[in-house]
């Protein structure tokens, strides 16, 4: 899945939102704050210790990641800042289109992908993932819509808006192959979740298909314009992505250790609670590398 509509506050896709974040967790997070851990820091590969790591995020996916004016905010944003502080590393956040993040990691442009990535086996062939959260896929429509959703086959005969590069796009494409000619599934694949949301609100699409907690956020912030349809499907882990190299795997192990430390000291839970996504939290035992279900 990745990924929201964000009829969210006025989210504007800016080219790059760069922030030096080695020293602080977002002011938005309440409760315990992250602290440097010498034990965790030792796990960071030498190649990454002195450089500023480039983090790629598609900030059109509230409450996970979005833009508040010129500032990047969200659950994922606060979490990567807490991880950076725990490991004593510097990170620079880049606001980029979701579909280009994994390519950017494999090409060496970015060292971390932090953008509500569903960890699946296909993506694991390109990058390493550190699983840190779980979510399903959700569907929403205009409040006046008569559409119903009981499973992916419900999409047959509909126009479905998705963000390009997401698991939802893949699942919609696979579902389209099963629809009859008389009830074709039309997929509107758009570059950002914001654009996908606009397609639904304007009537270009019948429904929006995205990550379940994002769908809930879109509906809850729509002033009654949207409603959720049915129940979430295909629950799977989210992963923070790193390069498929020796150093990249070492970085993944360091991030894994930092996450477990943040769970133990309460910072992880506080961040999730602040952003209203506690239901998707994982225990330390499930903070694993490359834990794709399918």
- CATH class of the largest domain equals Alpha Beta
Helix/strand order, N-terminal first: HHEEEEHEHEHEEHEHEHEHH
The total count of strands amounts to 11
Q: N-to-C terminal Cα separation, in Å? A: 12 Å
Number of H/I helices: 10
Q: What does the average pLDDT come to?
A: 90
CATH architecture of the largest domain: 3-Layer(aba) Sandwich
Features:
294 residues; alpha/beta; D-Maltodextrin-Binding Protein, domain 2; 2 domains; 3-stranded antiparallel beta sheet; 10 helices; globular; disordered N terminus
Q: What would your notes on this structure say?
A:
The chain folds into two domains: 38-135 and 236-286, 3-Layer(aba) Sandwich (D-Maltodextrin-Binding Protein, domain 2); 136-235, D-Maltodextrin-Binding Protein, domain 2, CATH 3.40.190. It is built from ten helices and eleven strands. The strands form two sheets. An eight-stranded mixed sheet has the order 5-1-6-11-7-10-8-9, sandwiched between helices. It has a three-stranded antiparallel sheet with strand order 2-3-4. It has helices spanning 38-41, 46-49, 75-87, 101-106, 121-124, 167-176, 193-201, 212-220, 246-264, 267-274; strands spanning 52-57, 60-61, 65-68, 71-73, 90-95, 112-118, 127-142, 159-163, 186-190, 207-211, 226-243. Strand 8, helix 6 (167-176) and strand 9 form a beta-alpha-beta unit.
